[in-house]
Write a structure and sequence with these properties.
Low-confidence stretches: 248-296
CATH architecture: 3-Layer(aba) Sandwich
Radius of gyration: 20 Å
Mean pLDDT: 80
Distance between the termini: 33 Å
Structural class: alpha/beta
Strand order of the largest sheet: 5-4-2-6-7-11-8-9-15
CATH topology: Rossmann fold
Shape: globular
Helix content: 10-25%
Length: 296
């Protein structure tokens, strides 16, 4: 599991929008790719104050920080890590394919899945565990591969899985962001982010990459006092189709050309006169993040 600088910006932007609360649980040890000075600059660029606890015994400016340091800088206290074994120093040992121990339930204000759920064979149980371990008002954050990650994990997760599960179980503030990043040298190249607009994009027949890019999704949801964890959703697109509110023909295909999203209907002709390709206005680009070194 890895948190490059671009993912850190997403997480801190969410913290600025609505501050997270602890305790914090991470699935697996999160490998960071952000040096201390860069982390300070990211906080400053987002007008976020660094908690004094995160400034205690600061490392050299060019030293990569760990996720526990970032959590401390956010003012969220101690970081807990859950893993299948203690090999990488996890303090909570559990298999997400099985129900977690009762002492882990209703405990955490933030659960970060920085690239674990696609490696859990029983995703249904993994999602239920996530919901069960959050306390009311706690939030789950998933950063998960979507496309062009063949054999990275058991599955490539579609955003509708997160949306439909959390909506079915009564979570609030269910939102997603599509991430487009290069396949190679992704730590030092430009990333682009687009709002995931479920009402339009849940009917997408395919969402694919160029041979130079990969897709991932950032998804978040907040538990409330009446949220459940065991409701199994029907995929919302087909619920709309069979309810007569969305036509089944003319499913959408979304692609991007050099990071520009466009959409067409798959049964429309490809002639120049009627190509039916347009900018996907429902999914406006939010911003681009560039961590390439400045040229001398």
């Amino acid at each position: 599991m890895s948190l490059p600088a671009q993912s850190v910006v997403l997480l801190l932007s969410e913290h600025r929008r609505e501050p997270f609360t602890g305790p914090v649980l991470a699935y697996g040890k999160q490998t960071m790719n952000v040096v201390y000075d860069a982390a300070i600059r990211i906080f400053e660029s987002l007008d976020l104050k660094v908690d004094p606890a995160g400034l205690t015994d600061p490392p050299p400016g060019d030293e990569v920080i760990d996720f526990a340091r970032l959590v401390s800088m956010m003012g969220l206290g101690r970081l807990h890590v859950l893993d299948l074994s203690g090999y990488e120093g996890a303090d909570l040992i559990a298999d997400l394919n099985q129900p977690v121990p009762p002492e882990y339930l209703n405990r955490f204000g933030l659960i970060l899945d920085g690239g674990t759920m696609e490696h859990v064979f029983d995703i249904r149980q993994g999602m239920k565990n996530t919901a069960d371990m959050l306390r009311p008002e706690g939030r789950a954050v998933h950063i998960t591969p979507v496309n062009n990650y063949v054999n990275h994990g058991f599955v490539q997760v579609s955003p509708t899985l997160y949306h439909d599960y959390y909506v079915a179980n009564g979570f609030d503030d269910v939102r997603g962001i599509m991430i487009v990043h290069p396949r190679f040298d992704y730590l030092n190249t430009l990333w682009h982010f687009f709002h995931y607009e479920h009402e339009t994009m849940s009917g997408v027949n395919s969402m694919f990459c160029t041979d130079e890019t990969q897709l991932a999704v950032y998804f978040t949801a907040r538990k409330n006092s009446t949220s459940t964890s065991g409701r199994v959703p029907t995929q919302s697109y087909f619920t709309r189709v069979y309810g007569g509110t969305d036509p089944l023909p003319n499913q959408l295909v979304i692609a991007h050309d050099r990071m520009k999203l466009n959409v067409r209907r798959i049964n429309e002709p490809e002639s120049d006169e009627n190509k039916a390709t347009r900018d996907l206005n429902c999914s406006t680009k939010i911003w681009s993040i560039d961590f390439r070194p400045a040229k001398p």
